User: What shape does this take?
Amino acid sequence: YALAFSRSNLSDFYVSTFKNGRGIVYLVRDNFFTLDTILDLRGEAVYDFIVRDDALYLGLSDGRVLMYTPTNQSFRVLTAFGAPFTRFTASVSGSFPFYATLGARKFIRYDGRRFIETDFSGSLSSLRTISSFSIDPRNASLVYAATDLGLARSTNAGRTWSLLTSLPSDTSAL
Assistant: This one.
């Protein structure tokens, strides 16, 4: 499941499900009194989605990224990758850029016009898994990723990354 509130009407939200081989996204209104199907895919799941600028961006299990515009109830394929789009996150400002993981180890940045895939090199070249990432609420260029190698940080909106090697130990006094 994934959940996200509408930006244009805060009493509406989106929910995705996957059951019996079908990925479905609903627009939920009135505390579940109204449930409208906006997308029904056979054999594909909607792994995650995010609302930005009154549009819903959906990451699918087949690697496609769709944009749904509620005002005209239309979908558009923005891009397709060769691995599942697994997770979105965005700055608290609600604008671009937003970020996503592709499969287990690719990091993607979307600036409102194009998708930019990060090439993890140097200290992160042996990266196998990105389990989580977060954007600093005070500075959208500062992005952190929890990886199998440790905590990584980008100071330029995900263009380049470095592994943080000097974290305080759990016995350090702060």
